[in-house]
Design a protein that fits this description.
It is a single chain. The chain is an alpha/beta fold. Helices cover 26% and strands 26% of the residues. The protein has a five-stranded mixed beta barrel. A four-stranded mixed sheet has the order 13-15-17-18. A hairpin with a 2-residue loop joins strand 8 and strand 9. It is globular and about 60 Å long.
Length: 351
């Protein structure tokens, strides 16, 4: 059977001051009436029944996730005692699926993407699950520009088609490049954005983990005996913090790449979210009660009070009841440094 794993463990530090530990990015309503986590789960219907959708997120957020997702069985909402990146997250979920379905095929996907239309997304997911063999199928995105904020997939020139969707073989993974390298990738044409979504056959996934991260999978065997939260916390603390890309995928050869037929956006920061907000004649993008005078190219989000800008260009301003962010748009990726600085100061009220 086909299963879906939604990875919702990210803190969303680039969305500070709105994204906080007690209310991180997947629980925020950035684009509509529903939080991103709800939107992601809803997008998976009708391909996956609730019984075959697993959510992995921070342990302290399990109750809130269960409230938001009443159709998802409580046993399918998995809490991580500590964050250990995507490899332990995926193995944790896969270990639970393996207890119920040894022949499972799994789609792993983050909880913070905007994807349209749903019909093409479901077609691509179904095709990827069918195509997954001993190698996984990664979703590549045709670049809309030379964006250095994404990882890139360098693919072979040859391609095939399944259900009308182009497939390639990945030659090499590239971490987030410099702006110059990103422009070079765009010109060459055989580089796609790495979406972070991938389909994998369970037995092939387990084999890859044993080969490339041999200490990781056996650590979860005690969970099958319902060893409880304390044992899970002990196991997690001993795990390396490693991504699936770095720990496994980059070490594999001839990995499949599906070129996504849908419109996709990684909602990684304020600039990405603001692309979905209306723009005025001065290219300002705003939400809330905002007054702009002689200002252009700004991203402004007000909440409970008026925010006024005079003579300001290319800034991000986010106002919340207890914290205010002001930074140049060019520093959007560095907003997470504010969170790190607050952690060092032990300013927990703002985290």
């Amino acid at each position: 059977m086909n299963w879906a794993v939604v990875m919702a463990g990210g803190k969303g530090t680039r969305f500070w001051p709105e994204s906080r530990a007690r209310f991180p990015k997947p629980f925020l309503k950035f684009l509509g009436r529903r939080p991103l986590l709800q939107e992601t789960v809803e997008r998976l219907r009708p391909l996956f029944p609730p019984s075959r959708i697993l959510i992995v997120l921070q342990q302290e957020l399990v109750k809130e996730a269960a409230r938001l997702l009443p159709r998802i069985p409580r046993k399918n909402i998995l809490g991580e005692p500590v964050g250990r990146n995507t490899a332990p997250c995926a193995v944790y979920a896969a270990s639970q699926i393996a207890r119920r379905d040894r022949n499972a095929r799994i789609i792993f996907l983050p909880a913070d993407h905007e994807i349209q239309p749903k019909s093409l997304f479901l077609k691509a997911v179904s095709t990827a699950l069918e195509a997954a063999d001993e190698r996984p199928v990664l979703f590549g995105i045709r670049p809309r520009g030379a964006n250095p904020a994404y990882g890139y997939l360098e693919v072979s020139g040859k391609r095939s088609r399944r259900n009308g969707i182009p497939f390639f073989t990945i030659r090499r993974f590239h971490e987030k490049p410099s702006p110059g390298k990103a422009r070079g990738f765009l010109k060459r044409g055989n580089f796609f954005w790495n979406s972070g979504m991938f389909a994998w056959r369970l037995d092939a996934f387990k084999a890859a983990v044993r080969t490339h991260l041999p200490k990781l999978y056996p650590a979860f065997r005690p969970l099958g005996r319902k060893s409880g939260k304390k044992a899970l916390a002990r196991i997690y603390r001993a795990l390396p913090s490693v991504s699936l890309d770095y720990g496994i995928l980059e070490k594999m050869k001839n990995v499949h790449c599906l070129l996504a037929p849908f419109d996709w956006s990684d909602l990684g920061g304020w600039a990405a979210i603001a692309e979905f907000w209306s723009s005025d004649s001065k290219k300002n993008r705003i939400r809330g009660d905002v007054l702009l005078l002689e200002s252009e190219g700004n991203i402004v989000k007000a909440n409970e009070r008026l925010v006024a800008l005079l003579g300001v260009k290319d800034f991000i301003v986010v106002d919340t009841p207890d914290a205010l962010l002001v930074c140049p748009r060019s520093k959007a990726e560095a907003i997470r440094d504010v969170v790190r600085a607050l952690e060092k100061r032990k300013a927990f009220a703002y985290l």
